[in-house]
């Protein structure tokens, strides 16, 4: 129990204790930040638990794939024969431990779940070929791309960016990562999500429009990818809304399942 709690505490903030102490003593002693040459303490490292290891995966950037399943593209109003998937971004500290409970966010009354597979990179580069792409994958996992649906629809109607609908605080509750070296690559397998026990999403990784190698290759034409980057690979059909008190479960074959309580 202690180890588990310790692990959860470290999920977000490796330097939380140091930062707290600095705030408390700021008036009477030089802060850690000043000793290091910063005007305030650097941001805490966001990191993810790794199954079978006491080490953690430090997150650099969070890329997300939109409309990467044909049936979800259709339910979202796209014609998948004409419109390819696309990318957007969440801030790294949107990644939080799925076990901590998901606080219903501000500025929305339509909170949507999207169950997704996560790809975690151990290396990167630019213009990565599809043939080489899987060599850069460290691990896979399960997570949620939580969305303020009302804010998204407003943005879409005005042809404005989606940022506040997708990149809000704690918008990516995630489970632990399953390293390739022990668990292999997650190329096919059932991906599902339930709310209060009712299955809402039920698909297969086979149905991704851009496979993991394709997604990495395409993304690397736009950004230089690096170790620590994670990619949320999109959600299948069956998206919907949740309320405070709802319990979301989502899982992928061989990558376990997570439970997220909306609080
Ligand atoms: Mn999504």
If you had to describe this structure to a student in words, what would you say it looks like?
The chain has helices at 2-12, 16-25, 32-36, 70-75, 130-133, 149-157, 163-166, 180-183, 212-222, and strands at 47-49, 56-58, 62-66, 86-90, 95-97, 111-113, 115-121, 137-144, 147-148, 172-174, 178-179, 190-195, 198-204, 230-232, 240-242, 247-252, 257-261. It contains nine helices and 17 strands. By secondary structure, it is an alpha+beta fold. The model is unreliable at 1-6 and 9-26 (pLDDT under 50). The two termini are 23 Å apart. It is globular and about 50 Å long. Strand 12 (190-195) and strand 13 (198-204) form a beta hairpin. The protein folds into two domains: 1-45, no CATH class; 47-261, Fumarylacetoacetate hydrolase, domain 2 (Alpha-Beta Complex). The strands form five sheets. It has a six-stranded mixed beta sheet. Strands 13-12-16-17 form a four-stranded antiparallel beta sheet, with no helix packed on it. A three-stranded antiparallel beta sheet has the order 9-6-15. Residues 64, 114, 116, 145, 234-235 line the site of manganese (II) ion.
What's the layout of helices and strands?
Elements: H1 2-12, H2 16-25, H3 32-36, E1 47-49, E2 56-58, E3 62-66, H4 70-75, E4 86-90, E5 95-97, E6 111-113, E7 115-121, H5 130-133, E8 137-144, E9 147-148, H6 149-157, H7 163-166, E10 172-174, E11 178-179, H8 180-183, E12 190-195, E13 198-204, H9 212-222, E14 230-232, E15 240-242, E16 247-252, E17 257-261
The structure holds manganese (II) ion.
């Amino acid at each position: 129990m202690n180890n588990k709690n310790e692990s959860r505490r470290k999920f977000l903030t490796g330097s939380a204790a140091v930062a707290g102490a600095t705030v408390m003593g700021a008036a009477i002693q030089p802060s850690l930040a000043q000793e290091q040459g910063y005007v305030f303490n650097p941001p805490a490292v966001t990191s993810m638990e790794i199954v079978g290891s006491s080490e953690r995966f430090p997150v650099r950037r969070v890329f997300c794939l939109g409309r990467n399943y044909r049936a979800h593209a259709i339910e979202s109003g796209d014609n998948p024969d004409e419109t390819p998937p696309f990318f957007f971004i969440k801030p790294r500290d949107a990644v939080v431990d799925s076990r901590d409970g998901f606080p219903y966010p501000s500025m929305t009354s339509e909170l949507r779940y999207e169950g997704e597979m996560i790809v975690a990179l151990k290396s990167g580069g630019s213009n990565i070929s599809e043939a080489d792409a899987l060599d850069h994958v460290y691990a896979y996992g399960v997570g949620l791309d939580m969305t303020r649906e009302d804010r998204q629809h407003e943005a879409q109607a005005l042809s404005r960016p989606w940022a506040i609908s997708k990149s809000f605080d704690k918008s990516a509750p995630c489970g632990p990562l399953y390293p390739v070296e022990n668990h292999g690559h997650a190329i096919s397998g059932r991906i599902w999500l339930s709310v209060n026990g009712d299955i809402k999403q039920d698909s297969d990784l086979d149905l991704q429009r851009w496979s993991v190698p394709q997604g990495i290759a395409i993304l690397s034409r736009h950004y230089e990818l690096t170790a620590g980057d994670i990619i949320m690979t999109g959600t299948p059909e069956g998206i919907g809304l949740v309320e405070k008190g709802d319990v979301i479960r989502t899982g992928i074959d061989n990558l376990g399942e997570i439970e997220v309580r909306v609080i």
